[in-house]
Amino acid sequence: MRVNPDSNADTIGFKVGDALVRLNGETVSDQHRRRSKRCRTVKPGSHIDLVVSRNNKPVELSGIYDPPIVSYPPRQLFERPVPSGRVDLVRQGNTVRATTRGVTAFTLLLSPDQFDFSKPVTVVANGRTVFDGRAQKDLRTLVKWAAADNDRTMLFGAELHIDLSR
């Protein structure tokens, strides 16, 4: 373990190699699990009494528990080569209203459970009609998405490629 200069541990008197034995009169037997659990029960700004083992001899320490509040800049978990976009859809019958942000195209999958393929499908994106016509059932679409999803409750009989740049 290390003790950073001018840290709360340094101010209280911890040295490299110290092993925490007692915290506020309670024995700490499992160094990693109990130490962090016990420290979480101590309120910042309160006085603490410690016994550490230093070179196999007990050493008493005391001070004010003043853990630093460290704020790290947010990290991006996944690389994004381009900014992400968003498509929000609302379906009413065979009409789909899409609100988009940051996308120039999207693929709309049509399920025979939700759409009547005998009637025209209308897609309105950002207030503009971008598709109005019949969707053709396509066995290749059904097989492709069934294999990708591996979920018999998500069967898609047609797909529409919606281009918003036109």
Explain this structure to me?
With 166 residues, the chain is α+β, with helices and mostly antiparallel strands. It has helices spanning 8-12, 31-41, 139-149, and strands spanning 19-23, 26-27, 47-54, 57-64, 86-92, 95-101, 105-110, 121-125, 128-133, 158-163. The model has no long low-confidence stretch (mean pLDDT 88). It has three helices and ten strands. The chain folds into two domains: 8-64, PDZ domain (Pdz3 Domain, Roll), CATH 2.30.42; 86-163, no CATH class. It is 16% helix and 36% strand. It is rod-shaped, with a radius of gyration of 31 Å.
Helix and strand string, N-terminal first? HEEHEEEEEEEHE
Termini distance? 62 Å
Cα-atom Rg, whole angstroms?
A: 31 Å
Percentage beta strand: 35-45%
Tally of DSSP β-strands: 10
Number of helices: 3
Arrangement of strands in the largest sheet: 2-1-3-4
Contiguous low-pLDDT stretches (5 residues minimum) are none
Structure, briefly:
Helix content is 16%, strand content 36%. It is built from three helices and ten strands, in the order αββαβββββββαβ.
Question: How would you summarize the topology of this molecule?
Answer:
Layout lengths: L7 H5 L6 E5 L2 E2 L3 H11 L5 E8 L2 E8 L21 E7 L2 E7 L3 E6 L10 E5 L2 E6 L5 H11 L8 E6 L3
Parallel strand pairs: 6-8
Antiparallel strand pairs: 1-2, 1-3, 3-4, 5-6, 7-10, 8-9
Task: Give me some keywords for this one.
2 domains, 3 helices, four-stranded mixed beta sheet, 166 residues, Pdz3 Domain, 16% helix, four-stranded antiparallel beta sheet
